[in-house]
Fold this sequence. Notes:
The strands form three sheets. The protein has a six-stranded antiparallel sheet with strand order 2-1-4-5-6-7. Helix 7 packs antiparallel against helix 13. By secondary structure, the chain is an alpha/beta fold. It contains 20 helices and 15 strands. Helices cover 56% and strands 19% of the residues. InterPro entries: DNA_recomb/repair_RecN (IPR004604), P-loop_NTPase (IPR027417), RecF/RecN/SMC_N (IPR003395). Keywords: ATP-binding, DNA damage, DNA repair, Nucleotide-binding.
Amino acid sequence: MLLELSITDFAIIEHLDIEFQSGMTVLTGETGAGKSIIIDAVGLLVGGRGSHDLIRTGAKKSIIQGNFILSDDNPTYDVLDELGIDHSDGNVIIERELFASGRNSCRVNGMMINISTLRRIGETMVDIQGQNEHQELMKPERHIALLDDFAEDAIQPVLATYQKDYDQFVKLRAINEKKHQNEKEWAQRVDMLKFQINEIETADLHENEDETLTAERDRLTNFQKIHDALLSSYEGISGEDTSSLDSIGGAMSSMQEIEDLDPDFKQISDDLSGAFYTLQDVASQISDQLSNLEFDQDRLNQVEQRLNTIYQLKHKYGDSVTQILGYLKKIKQELAEMSGNADNNNDLEQQLADIKAALIKNAKKMGDIRRRYAKELERAVHQQLRDLYMDKAVFEVHFKENQTLNRLGADQVEFYIQTNPGEKMLPLVKSASGGELSRIMLALKTMFAKAAGVTSIIFDEVDTGVSGRVAQAMGNKIYTISTKSQVLCITHLPQVAAMSDHHYLIQKKIHGGRTTTTITELNQKNSVDEISRMLSGTAVTKLTKEHADELIRLANEEKAKIRT
């Protein structure tokens, strides 16, 4: 769950440090006080899009920090392990900075990461449901994704295989279309690739072969120079006429006679001994080199010829043997894609036919799964809507089969609803009001198993457009979700606020001519006062306080029922 949140110089927030707890937390306050700004800060913390416009006027940067504590089986740990981010203490500390220059800085447990990686981590921890989430229901093209969320365990393995095949199908189809657009150029390219592959493979190149051959050529072409230098060196060290080695040996013997008389003499004697034995080793090595040294004109000719072959290939395909071999790998892959998979010797057309057959088969399998789970979704939505006082509503999942395959299969899914008896069943986007959309989205969120996987769920005024007993029912649903995951909820409804375990008041104040947002955790008495204000508006009377007390008492009874 989100344990601590720190916000500095963000929008109208100068600085806030907030400690959150498990269960259901509500944030209330007047419109414009900054409630949604706090949720926006959390959204940025888990990978939301940032802008320098969000930096508080006059500040150089905004800083948002969050400390999350996760359960042992949370999927976030798998992502962190993959990225090499330490989490041995069980905490995930995220820091994000927005700079006036437009630059962003993101860190997780001290490691710098990019925005896309932060978003990948964040989506495993926080699920933000705002008023804009209702727009997902207003987009029929998104309905299939919602159904797949509901059927996730059953459909995901098939969908993953299908999408892998589909991506390969699209790639091969593009190659095939390109081939048919210009058969002559295609054939010429295939012939060119075959020629280049044959030329390089015939040369039978080896890594770093050019460097080894160059060194051998230099040794052969400089044979006389090398021989003279080695011989001169050997004669200088251990020649019969003037031997440096004999002279140093004599000096070493002389020093050994007096080395016990003084420590300095001992050091000189040891140094002379070291020099003598080192020269002995060098003389032996030079002698070996002279013994093995021989000039081979035929070998020099072979090396020169081989280097010339490599030079010709370098001129065409790369500056080194490594680059030439890399080019060979690249064009072999291109030829395999153009000519068909070499593993099964099928041509491109056959590959496309085989993959398409597999796609059709898996698309049908996904369609069967979706239709089966659609019935379960309909039953589950009806149950949830009954709890939310839409017991007369009829919810249906309609299917239409696409003529062409897409990345999700062959199904077109759209939600239909009949909100009142006797009315025609219509697409959800044409018949549901704002309050009905709020209830349908909450019903779906209550059901989807995916919600249980994240550590925190945030509801940003999802209860807009409802009131009375519907508001109480929505409060019950949100509280039910909070028994399985931490919930943060922004609300203007007293019924929802009364269901909370923790209540924070967000206020906007002016200090020194600057507007800033403050947050205060309310005790039971202050929570009653705030709920009274939510009930009555500006004038809080004794009667409204009694009403607030009664609302909280009834909420506690509802909470006790839900927990049992």
